[in-house]
Design brief:
The structure is a single chain. Helix content is 90%, strand content 0%. The chain has 181 residues and is mainly alpha-helical. The chain has one domain. Helix 3 packs across helix 4. It is rod-shaped and about 185 Å long. The termini are far apart.
Length: 181
Amino acid sequence: MLPHSLLITSATGGHNGVSSMFEVGQSAFIWTLVIFLLALPFMWKFVFGPILKALEEREEASRNSARAAESAREETERMRAQIQQDLDAARREAAHQVAAAKARAGEREQELLGAAKAEAERERARARAEIETALASAREVLRREAVELGVQVAEQVISREFSEADQQRLVADFQREVSPN
């Protein structure tokens, strides 16, 4: 009930109420200032010092974190650049290998094409030679048959038979006349 009685006393204008509690005399101000000045070194050492030290440590830790983050960023950037260089080198090497493989394939294609052309030309030459041989043989057979036919016709016309030597001589003469050489 004391607070209630203080309010009543202050409302009635009494000096012993709440308002008297807030009145500070000049001597109380001086004592407060002396106590504050005497307590200030202790407060500085035991309160403000640790707080200031904690703030400085926090600021240093923040600086260290910022430096570490910057260092990590630089390292990441360096690694990214190195990876990009490696990737570019790998791409160049792959392109070089592809180009070399294409060149080898082109060379092999030309080799095979050349070999096929040479084989085809040999086949053509062999076929031509066979054709020429067959043609020459056929011409020779035709000549002989023509000569024999001519001799038989001549025998019948002359009515006598030629001897083997006469036939050979006549065939040779006819061949000389017919042959283009």
